[in-house]
Write a structure and sequence with these properties.
Blueprint lengths: L1 H6 L2 H41 L4 H10 L2
Length: 66
């Protein structure tokens, strides 16, 4: 993998390294929010089922509607 990075021009390599560094800084926050996001999505799924959709229909709605 390091060989591939060396082939990238310096400016692009620096931008890529910066993007990965930023992602590394953001990961703890993303992970902390994952439980909240999962709970909200589960509540949405349950609301669809409660409104009369079947579980497969509710799952498809959750997949297609952000």
């Amino acid at each position: 993998m390091n060989d591939n990075i060396r082939e990238i021009p310096n400016l692009e390599r620096d931008a890529l390294k910066g993007a990965f560094a930023e992602l590394g800084r953001m990961l703890p926050e993303i992970a902390a929010n994952a439980a909240t996001i999962a709970s909200a999505r589960r509540a949405l799924f349950n609301a669809y089922v409660g409104a009369g959709f079947t579980e497969p229909q509710a799952l498809e709605l959750c997949r297609t509607i952000p």
